[in-house]
Amino acid sequence: MELKNNQDLVICIEDGLDTTAGEQLAEKLGVEIRKDKGETLTLCYRKEGLFLEGFGLSYQGDFTRLLPRVTNGHLAHEMLYRIAKTKEQEPMAVDATAGLGEDSFLLAACGYTLTMFEQNPVIAALLQDALKRAKQHSVCGSIAERMTLVEGNSIELMPKLTTKLDLLYLDPMFPKRQKSGLIHKKLQLLQKLEQPCMEEELLFQTAWQVYPKKLVVKRPLKGSLLAGEKPNHSIQGKAIRYDCFVPTRHVGYK
User: Would you say the pTM of this structure is higher than 0.70?
Assistant: First the structure.
């Protein structure tokens, strides 16, 4: 899930900003810092925050866009809320495939304290920037404070977890064969950076061995079962479904 080609990315830093974060990321990725945008993807550090631009598209993480879904009673209508609801007073969860962090935000709005794993350093930088700004927001702040980002490979990080999880969430990137109409424009940019998961069986096996109270997997509505494993139950929407595994029965892994 690494950058397909680091040379496809350029970093731009607006004049007057602290250049430390951009320089560190540029060194880590082995990419250039330029005044002008690159021909393909550009990561832009601006006063307003961090932006990923390219192919006529622009993305900035912004959790305030999700507020209409989590306020005024709307959260209870979310499929993710219905599949993840719990009676625990202080539930703990891990989003092992955080991506842009939107599902993590919904889970945090449900009351979960979230640890998010994201391997791709550019996506992690975008997510960290969005999280920083959300924590300063008057409404988002109380939700975002329950979210912590850890950059790294979830297959390596999950076995190191020491906290008993009420929920472990997996959202492997949708396969490219999915119709383009179901892929939001922001995800088109994401797919320029990160390939769909090619280690689905290992991802599922590692998650299962963490032994959460619930293992929830997001899939395309007509997509195959993750690692071929049948869930205890599912909730379906128009384009996606959530498969829920409850570790009270054996599903192929010890």
Answer: yes
- In eight-state DSSP terms, residue 124 is H
Please, are residues 23 and 33 in contact by the beta-carbon 8 Å criterion?
Answer: yes
Q: Would you state the pLDDT for residue 138?
A: 96
Characterise 161 by phi-psi region: left (phi > 0), alpha (psi -120 to 50), beta (else): beta
Determine the angle formed by the axes of helices 121-135 and 20-29, rounding to 10 degrees.
160
180 token code pair: 């383009």
Q: Which amino acid is at 227?
A: A
Place of tokens 């540029």: 26
Q: How far apart are CA 124 and CA 146, in angstroms?
A: 17
Which helix (H) or strand (E) segment holds residue 105: the answer is helix 102-109
Let me know: does 56 contact 84? Beta carbons within 8 Å. Answer: no
Tokens encoding 241 = 């479904």
Read off the pLDDT band of 39 (50, 70, 90).
confident
